[in-house]
Amino acid sequence: MLGLKLLTDPRWANIAESNLEEILSDHAWCEQKAASNAITIITQNPEHEELVHELTAIAIEELGHFKMVIDIIKERGYTLRRERKDDYVNQLLKFSKKDGSRNQAFIDRLLFAAMIEARSCERFRVLSQNIKDDFLKKFYYDLMVSEANHYTTFLNFARKYTIDVDVDKRWKEWLDFEGELIKSYGTKEYIHG
Ligand SMILES: [Fe+2]
Ligand SMILES: [Fe+2]
Which residue ranges does UniProt annotate as crossing the membrane (predicted)? Predict the structure, then answer.
């Protein structure tokens, strides 16, 4: 799926469903961070008109997802918990190239975003297929479709704006790195847990 090297064990969905308040809170912050990340990319690359427009739409959509999740939290009588450190995302951030050319850093920022979209999409798929709550099944199915589109957008922009990066080669490196990294996860009730 989306080139990912390792698919999530479906039993992770049972762990997630056993603590909905935690997974929903964590999920809300993932959406907030996705919106913030899109805004950061826009801020750093204003010269790319198409990117500015498309990522503005994504930022709005991600904040819409944040709103949907906090509404569910409220409806169910849960509390939005404080944001926690996302170890998985921090490891991906460390893998990102920051020391090369400006274009290399830009392309890697897009691939970093594509990577998180791909794994989030896969996790939403596992939730939609395995949890028992009918409302959340549908909710996660819809989000899976949306994040798959974001994945495509980020990857296509990397291909469009590359100057000195072999995007297919670098994307393969990302997939290999993530495939190893994700082996240490899949046991906690977080979206990337
Ligand atoms: Fe989202
Ligand atoms: Fe997304």
Answer: none
